[in-house]
Design brief:
The complex is a heterotrimer. In chain A, about 65% of the residues lie in helices and about 15% in strands. Chain A is built from 10 helices and 7 strands. Chain A has a 7-stranded mixed β-barrel. In chain A, helix 3 packs antiparallel against helix 5 (about 180-215), helix 3 (about 140-170) packs parallel to helix 7 (about 225-265) and helix 5 (about 180-215) packs parallel to helix 9 (about 280-305). Chain A is elongated, with a radius of gyration of 29 Å. Chain A starts with a helix and ends with a helix. Chain B is an all-alpha fold. Chain B has one domain (about 20-250). In chain B, about 85% of the residues lie in helices and about 0% in strands. Chain B has 9 helices and no strands. In chain B, helix 3 (about 45-70) runs parallel beside helix 6 and helix 4 (about 80-115) runs antiparallel to helix 6 (about 130-170). Chain C is built from 10 helices and 10 strands. The longest helix of chain C is centred in the last third of the chain and has 18 residues, at about 190-210. Classes of the chains: A alpha/beta, B mainly alpha, C alpha/beta. The interface between B and C is medium-sized, with 15 and 24 residues. Bound molecules: adenosine-5'-diphosphate and magnesium ion (MG). The site of adenosine-5'-diphosphate has 11 residues of chain C, from strand 2 and helix 2.
């Protein structure tokens, strides 16, 4: 205890070091959460906040732009969220920008993402309302997907019949064209594959969603975190888009085939003339090719979905179970 | 079963002792010089140990977490996860436990042997209130120093985690700490720091109580040191439990 | 058998009107079932050394701890310099304690401090802000009194048993107490060192005119230092007198100490 003075200096350094780290941490956290944000306010109305609370961050094109200032329940379907926006950023936000609720990082807080619109609209003013996009609903998505699959199945059946009949008919040489025939066939095969996959997929997803609801498995755990839900949403959106496309394509194909059928059954010459027309044949060919591409893309998507990290474990499990059963 | 009345009696005595700390220990005259000396010993001299364990803890935690995060495909979230784990729970609790082991036992043994060799009586006879001189300074020093140790230990642990992240991949210091701080909120840091005051207080008061009421003989001193550590560690977990409940109620989680 | 106080007093050279510094009346102290002191009475006058003789466990240490207020008696009064110790509050107790020196059986030196810090410890707490030169002078004087002037910067662990006892004595003396309570000052020391301690006690008593209670069962020490001897037995003052008186007593209980 003879060198008390020196000890006190060490103790002082020690204490200061601790305080500096603490203050620095608070500063860093405060900076990120923009505690001292500006007074530029805009409003957004959501029907579901997914856990967003006052104090959460607002990002504009991924840049820290402000914080959620206030959350107010207006009625049973609308919640008004007031955002405090950094004036530096607000100058770049146009009125057609879209606000969505997302998640910060993997397990972070809720955030509001403002995505720039076309950039043609006026710059927002204080108190303006931003547009929103409804969050993707997994249930609705799966329902659509299921319907689409049914449609595809139905249509492809008809398509098969029709094509067989067209194939069999000797009148239309153009359809004997090897290329077109094989193209049609392979497109049909693809379509089959896709439909089967999609049906599987839908069933699996259904099962999985049930599992998730029950909070089963790692995927279930992770999915209760809305961050993953966000990722899944993206994947699902893709699937839906493809299936929508396929749906449209098949619907178009259906009308086409129906008209062909009608023409054939009525034995009206116009069809014959049309089909003889190489332009129409070419169009038909390209349509077929489109369908082929579309269905192949759909297949790819299905494949990709299988490899998606979220669902990978699930599919692996499925395979394992299959292997066990064998 | 026969130990239950004993236990209740002891609880009462500890409570009394704590009450005495607040009633006499915090009144003037303050033993400022002794307080500083104790802060130096309890705080500064514990830093190497706490720093070392903190570093290893951060490193090991990172290496242990990596495989599971990799299997979920979220390896990039490693700093966030380690950061939250260290700042919220592992840093404060592990630091407090090591602190209890080092400081709780040393206070228990020191006061125990002073009691046994009548040094405490000698102090009292010489006109010094040993409760103020010995107990109040140590409890206060432990209460004030553990938070600082925890903060420094957190920082060192995060550095360990940074090293751990860099074993298998490369991250810049800046990105690492930006990621860590991005994921943290005041609700993570503030309760974690506040609860360490209580941890420190528990370690100090238990060590002093056990030492101050040590029974005669070398055996008594050993028992004091030992039970001080055990009781302090248990108290740390109980306080931690209360803290998590409280932050939950306050909506800071 | 009790030797009458009157007869013993008449043999004393000290005049009748001497000042009483410690007056213990009807002192009772028990620990649970263990009755240690039971109606103990004793008077100590200025300028005399009273030796309390008793078997190990008789309650001698308990007696002087009651005197300095470390233990609270169950009943009875202990008047030290006119104040009843058991009834004093903390502040007054601290005040009276500055006038009492207490030499512990095991020295009770602060083993984490150097000898100087040990000596300074009570000084620094008695008078707020004593100038450093004065503190140094007092330390030097105290160490000189016990003829160990070169040990100031040593740790207690580096000193021998006899030296520790002397340092402890120096620490007791540094506040210039009016009363000194010695708890077995020579126990555990070799005869030569024990003599040195005895002589020191006598010399210090002469120098500072203190009143002392010396607890001992070392008959050489008793013989050397005692102006008056009190035999503590069964919690009572069993016999009282000069060394010679007790030595010549026929009582079995007294005799066993003098064999
Ligand atoms: N703090 C205490 N608690 C319980 N019993 C005690 C305490 N101090 C002393 N005693 C008991 O009082 C008796 C006298 O002890 P003591 O005065 O130390 O003996 P001695 O005369 O040898 O100094 C012993 O029987 C001891 O057991
Ligand atoms: Mg004794």
């Amino acid at each position: 205890m003879t060198n008390q003075g020196e000890n006190n200096i060490k103790l002082g350094l020690f204490t200061l070091a601790g305080l500096v780290v603490l203050i620095f941490s608070f500063y860093m956290i405060g900076k990120n959460h923009n505690l001292f944000g500006g007074d530029f306010e805009v409003k957004v109305r959501f029907s579901n906040l997914n856990g967003l609370i006052a104090g959460n961050n607002v990002l504009y094109s991924g840049i820290q732009a402000g914080t959620v200032k206030n959350v107010e329940l207006l009625n049973d379907t609308a919640i008004e969220v007031t955002l405090s926006i950094d004036p530096k950023v607000s100058a770049f936000i146009h009125q057609d920008a879209i606000a969505t609720i997302g998640t910060e990082g993997l397990m972070g807080n809720k955030i509001i993402n403002i995505q720039p619109g076309t950039g043609k609209g006026l710059v927002i003013n204080k108190g303006d309302y931003l547009k929103t996009r409804k969050a993707v609903n997994t249930d609705a998505m799966l329902q659509t997907l299921d319907k689409t699959n049914n449609n595809i199945a139905l249509i492809s059946e008809e398509l098969k019949n029709t094509v067989t009949r067209i194939n069999q008919s000797k009148i239309f040489e153009v359809l004997n064209d090897q290329e077109l025939g094989s193209g049609l066939r392979s497109s049909l095969a693809n379509m089959h594959q896709a439909t089967a996959d999609a049906r599987d997929m839908a069933a699996n997803l259904d099962l999985m969603v049930k599992g998730i609801r029950g909070g089963k498995g790692a995927a279930g755990l992770l999915l209760t975190d809305t961050a993953f839900a966000g990722n899944l949403n993206n994947a699902m959106q893709n699937v839906r888009m493809v299936s929508d496309n396929a749906n449209q394509a098949t619907i178009r194909l259906n009308t086409l085939i129906n008209s062909v059928n009608q023409d054939l059954s009525s034995k009206n010459g116009s069809m014959y003339v049309l089909l003889k027309d190489s332009v129409v044949a070419g169009q038909l060919r390209s349509t077929m090719k489109n369908i082929q591409d579309g269905t192949a893309g759909f297949n790819q998507n299905m494949e990709a979905l299988k490899h998606n990290f979220l669902l990978r474990g699930y599919f692996k499990n499925l395979e394992k179970q299959k292997n066990k059963k064998q | 079963m026969a130990r239950i009345p004993e236990f209740i009696k002891e609880t009462g005595q500890v409570t009394r002792f704590t009450g005495r700390f607040f009633s006499t220990g915090l009144k003037p005259r303050f033993e400022v010089k002794e307080l500083l000396a104790q802060c130096y010993f309890i705080g500064y001299q514990s830093l190497p140990l706490i720093g070392l364990t903190g570093f290893i803890m951060g490193l090991v935690l990172t290496m242990q977490l990596r495989p599971s995060l990799v299997s979920y495909g979220v390896e990039s979230e490693l700093p966030v996860m380690v950061g939250i784990a260290i700042v919220r729970e592992i840093g404060p609790v592990i630091t407090a436990l090591i602190f209890a082991g080092k400081i709780g036992s040393s206070i228990g043994a020191e006061l125990g042997s002073m009691k046994v060799t009548e040094q405490i009586d000698a102090m009292e006879v010489s006109g010094t209130n040993p409760f103020k001189y010995l107990v109040a300074t140590r409890v206060l020093a432990a209460t004030l120093m553990l938070p600082i140790l925890t903060i420094l230990s957190d920082a060192i642990s995060l550095f360990g985690a940074y090293v751990g992240v860099n074993i298998r991949s490369v991250t810049s210091v800046r990105l690492f700490f930006t990621q860590v701080f991005d994921s943290l909120s005041f609700g993570d840091l503030a309760p974690a720091v506040i609860k360490t005051f209580f941890f420190g207080f528990a370690v100090g008061i238990v060590g002093c109580y056990k030492g101050y009421n040590s029974s005669k003989g070398t055996r008594g001193v050993g028992t004091s040191a030992n039970t001080a550590v055990v009781l302090a560690s248990v108290l740390i977990f109980i306080i931690d439990l209360l803290a998590v409940q409280l932050t939950d109620v306050l909506g800071l989680n | 058998m009790e030797i009458s106080t009157g007869s013993s007093m008449s043999e004393k050279k000290i005049p009748e009107d001497r000042e009483t510094v410690i007056e213990i009346e009807h002192l009772c102290k028990r620990f649970g079932e263990n009755v240690v002191l039971n109606d103990f009475n004793l008077k100590v006058y200025r300028n005399e050394n009273v030796v309390v003789l008793g078997k190990s466990g008789a309650g001698k240490s308990v007696l002087i701890k009651c005197v300095i207020g470390l233990l609270k008696p169950d009943s009875g009064t202990i008047r030290v310099l006119g104040k009843n110790v058991p009834e004093l509050d903390h502040e007054d107790l601290d005040k009276i304690r500055t006038k009492i020196g207490f030499l512990f059986q095991g020295n009770a030196l602060y083993d984490s401090m150097t000898v100087r810090e040990n000596l300074e410890f009570s000084l620094r707490r008695q008078w707020i802000k004593l100038p450093q030169t004065e503190v140094d002078a007092l330390v030097k004087e105290a160490l000189g009194n016990v003829s160990l002037p070169h040990t100031a910067d040593m740790m207690p662990a580096e000193l021998s048993g006899g030296m520790l006892k002397r340092i402890a004595l120096a620490r007791t003396l540094i506040l210039k107490p009016e009363i000194i309570l010695y708890d077995e000052p020579t126990t555990g020391l070799d005869p030569v060192t024990a003599r040195e301690i005895d002589n020191l006690i006598i010399a210090l008593q002469k120098k500072y005119h203190t009143a002392s209670i010396i607890i001992s069962h070392d008959m050489n020490c008793v013989k050397n230092t005692a102006d008056r001897v009190v035999l503590l037995l069964d919690g009572k003052c069993y016999a009282e007198g000069t060394y010679r008186e007790l030595e010549e007593a026929a009582d079995e209980n007294i005799k066993q100490f003098f064999e």
